[in-house]
Each structure stands twice: as C-alpha cells, then as structure tokens.
Amino acid sequence: MWSKAREIAAGDTVILWLTRDALQPLIIEPGKEFNSKFGSYRHADLVGIPFGSKVGSRTGNGFIHVLRPTPELWTMALPHRTQILYLADIAFITSYLNIKNGSQVVEAGTGSGSFSHSVMRSIGTSGHLWSYEFHETRANKARQEFHRHGLSDRVTLTHRNVCKDGFTVTDTADALFLDLPAPWDAIEHAKKALRKDRIARICCFSPCIEQVLRTVSALNDSGFTDITMYETLLRPYDIQQTSFLPTIGEISDKLKQSEIRREEKRLKQIASGHRGGSDSTSPANGNSQKNVSASGGGYESSSSHGEKRKRDGTDGEDAGLLSDEPAGGKRAKTEEEDIIDVESQVIEDSQNFLTKDVSMDGGLLLVKAEEVLDEGNRVKMEKPPLAQPMKINLSKVMPEVRGHTSYLTFACLLPPLPTIGVVEDESLEQV
C-alpha cells in the first residue's frame, strides 16, 4: 500500500502539505516542476529525500512538506469526483461494522475512493474488498488509482448497477456498505451477498431522512434486525493559554481594599470640611489672617500659604488645613479630630491585615505569610506556601463547526436457526 521505502523514488505518490487546509497529491516524475504560491520545486530535487522532509523553494521564498500518503491524508487531498466520506464517518462505520484484518467487505458506490482506501488498510493483506461503481468513467479512474497505489491485490472493482443486477458474490461478505441514491433497491441483493453462517452487518449512507425511512422499511421486510441510525457530528474545541484566574480570596481582598480606599477618601473629605469650617469661627485666629504688609498683602498671604503647603506636604484637596494654625503655635486637637485619628488607625491596621508577602519561584506564585490582628497587636502567622501555575488552559467550542453530512443506518443479519428433527418414540405409540 503505497511506498514503504524511507526515501522518495521516481514514480512514488506523495502528499504535499502546503497549509493546514491545502494538501495536494503529486506523482514524482523527474523532469517536471511543481509551481505554487510557495515557490517552484523540481521533481528531481525531491527524489532521494526522506518522506516527511521540509523542502525550501529554489528562490528561498517558501517551503513545503513532502509526506508519505496515508488513508487520512488521501481523504484530505484526493481529487473529488463525487461527494466523499470524511474521517469521522469512516472511523465510525469501520468500527460499527467490525471491519478488521482478514474481513471480507462489499462496497457499492466506489466514488472517489476515500472509504475504499481506509477499508483496504483495515482488512490487511488477508482480507478483500469487492467494490462496485455504476459510472464507468469513475470506475476506470478508481481502478487506475488502486493500481498505482499498489492495492490491486486487495480489491476487485466492477462496473455494475447493483440495484438491478445484484452483486457478483454470494454468502461471502462479513460487512456490506451501500453509498447509493436508492439503497432500498439493493437490500435484497445485499442479503444474498452476506454470509449466513455468522452475524453479518450492513450500513447505508444516506443524506436525507426520507431515504432513511424507505431503507428502514426495506431492511425490516428483508428480515434484518437491530436496525439503528446515527449521525456523526464534530465539535472541535479551541484551546488557549491565559494567565491564572484569581481565587475567591484574592477577589475578596481586592474588594476590601477598594472599600478601604473609598473610606479613606471619605474621611479625608470630612476632616477637610470640619477644619475649614472651624477656621472662620475660631477666636484664636483673631486678626492673624490679616497679617498683610501695606505694600502687597495679597502676595504675602499667598506666599505664606505656599510655604505651608510645602512643609505639610498637602495637596489642593486639603487647602482647608493651611490656615488652622494660630499665630502663637499649633492649635489643640478637638474631640472630633481624636475620633478621626482612631478611625484612620483602624483603617491602617486593616490594610496591614490584607498585606501579603508575595514572591516568585520557578514561575510559580508563592504566598508566604500574612499579618493578622490579635488584640490590637499585629502578629505574623506563617502558612505553607501555595503554588499556583502562572498559565492555565482554557477551552471553548469553535464557532464554525462542520454540520450534517449524512445519516448512517446500521442493521444485522442473523444466521438462520438450525432445523431440529422430531424423533417419535415407538414405545409411546404402542401405549
């Protein structure tokens, strides 16, 4: 089945892998060239290189992979003469019909030969495939391909209308596959071709449900059992790597920190408003705010405010704190300010509670320890390191999925029950 040598030789069939969706079969004939958008390649340059090699173009603008043919690659690369079966259906049919090494298989509807190549690999050298094709041109083309691929000893291809003329074999096939427009017309002929000494199986490949209904009726009328129908669909998933997702605890900590920052901002606004209001009513200030020189009081007051702003390290939002000092020194704290300081201390302790010691070790995130409050004192509680991967795999269904191809109708033909002769007891007759 195809060439088994390590290196490519003249006359071999190879599969050129251009892209994931562009594969092309090629027969190596020295003296010819293969031209594509990926460059130009002489057939003679491919002779002698191992199968699976990556070959660069002569101009250096592209490359291709030269692969050894397999039934899977041939299904993806073959020239379509008819609608073909793809890998999902082929694998399911082969398994359900129990096609294995040494099996005798009958196929009606050769078509482009996609299913035929897979079956011939499954049955091996000890099995055999009888294939029938109604269209003469397609039959001749398939016969040439089987001969070129070294499969002539495993297959017998016949140009024949099996719906009218039946099959050329009788009581031979372990499994039978029908890929016909009207499979119900071939059911009786298929029953004759299947072997009767053991359980034989049949599969009908039909695109429309109306065909399935008529086929099921014909199978019932012909004595087939265990009739069932399947539809093979693919659901490919797209796998991507992304950064690890945060845990619930980390999300909770971030929310708490956000609330703490919001509370800090609110308390600052309250403190700023309170101190700004006390400046206008405090008698201690007196005329200290009027300490302005006769030549340019406004400039001097503005300058003193700028100096205080630099000393205190405050921003524009705390402008109310710039003029609350009396002329003789600092103003005494009020009871409300003491409450604000206590709240600020609680907020600071809360932030310490949420602080974690984080380090990196070999691409893993290690959480070493955290500080907790114990009766007002910060105590460092050691905890075992938690290793979390920096990357995780996420999967989702791809939006474009290959839909319906055809319905697969399966049935079994049981061997006939043996005839049991009745022996009469002469002694009972005499009585």
* Reported CATH architecture of the largest domain: 3-Layer(aba) Sandwich
Give start-end ranges of low-pLDDT stretches: 280-330, 349-375
The quaternary structure here is single chain
Relative helix content = 25-40%
End-to-end Cα distance, whole Å, is 73 Å
- CATH class division of the largest domain: Alpha Beta
**Class based on secondary structure composition and strand pairing:** alpha+beta
CATH superfamily label of the largest domain: Vaccinia Virus protein VP39
Radius of gyration: 43 Å
**Widest β-sheet, arrangement of strands:** 9-8-7-10-11-19-12
According to CATH, what is the topology of the largest domain?
Rossmann fold
Mean pLDDT: 78
Q: Which descriptor suits the 3D outline?
A: flat
Number of strands: 19
Q: How much beta, percentage-wise?
A: 25-35%
GO molecular function, one term: tRNA (adenine(58)-N1)-methyltransferase activity
Biased composition (Polar residues): 278-292
Region (Disordered): 268-339
GO cellular component, one term: nucleus
Task: Write a compact overview of the structure shown.
The chain is an alpha+beta fold and 431 residues long.
